[in-house]
Amino acid sequence: MKIGFIGLGTMGSAMCQNITRKHDDSVFAYDIRPDALEAAVSQGAVACTSAAEIARRADLIFTMVQTSLQVLSIYEEMLPELNEEKICVDMSTIYPDVTLRVHHMLEEKGTAFLDAPVVRSKGEAIMGTVGIYVGGDWDVYQKIRPILAYMGRSLIHIGGVGSGIIMNICHNVAVAQIQNAVNEALALAESQNIDMDRFAAALSYGGGQNAYLDAKLTKLETEDFTPEYSVDQMTKAIRICERFADMNDMDLPGMKAAQAVYKKAGEEGMGGEDYCATVKIVRSMVHSHADTDGKEIY
């Protein structure tokens, strides 16, 4: 099976590299940035000059780009080259209604389509251990599961087309709120001279242990905010959740609290920093609202 990969950004480049290294047939790659494409070629991929060329030459096509508009543009370009023999998998984090729109476009060509967004960050993408949420036909998923396993260690079929991206939304809004809660608790602990190591250890003794703090403790301690998953990326994820909630007439107050933090982080020029850098915003917000009027509580 010949594979095509479109979108060689932070995550996509690592995912494509894993496919190229592990697959025993041709892997075609395309990105609008020549340097990204050259890097993929250096790892063994075959360069293509357009998305249409990828669609023409590959049997299984992965797309991993930044925006819903980019996804639509790519699939519109590929459409004339698609047929019932091909499979397309979009791994981008986009609006669910756009996922369904792409699915309906491809249905008319008889082309199988899965949505398979990923979770975790750059390090896991390099290691081939991202989590992948899959929506679409079960038999198609089973057919390409070994290839998805080149990129991810944790694979789960959620349901029909669109369910993968909806689960991705659920994951991201949960992570944003967990992070916000940890940041607030940390700011409170620090205000009372509890050091970060003791805070993390004590939190783990009860129900507060969480993967976010376990993974980010060293970065928080050293204030190393080199991006693995950036403030801008999480801001986008929350924006997608907000739109989905609005379309379904749902109110998510916890999401809105996290969103306010990310909005301020963006205004402070932190968009390119790792999303754990929002601890700086939470610290400033907590201290700016501290009660200083000296009133007795009891």
Write a structural description:
Pfam families: NAD_binding_11 (PF14833), NAD_binding_2 (PF03446). Residues 2-159 form the 6-phosphogluconate dehydrogenase NADP-binding domain. This protein has 298 residues and is of the alpha/beta class. Helix content is 55%, strand content 13%. It is built from 13 helices and 9 strands. It has helices at 10-22, 34-42, 51-57, 68-78, 96-107, 122-127, 138-151, 163-191, 196-204, 211-222, 231-247, 253-267, 279-288; strands at 3-6, 27-30, 46-47, 60-63, 87-90, 112-115, 118-119, 130-135, 152-159. The chain has a 6-stranded parallel sheet with strand order 3-2-1-4-5-6, sandwiched between helices. A 3-stranded mixed sheet has the order 7-8-9. Helix 8 crosses helix 13. The N and C termini lie far apart (72 Å). The relative contact order is 0.09.
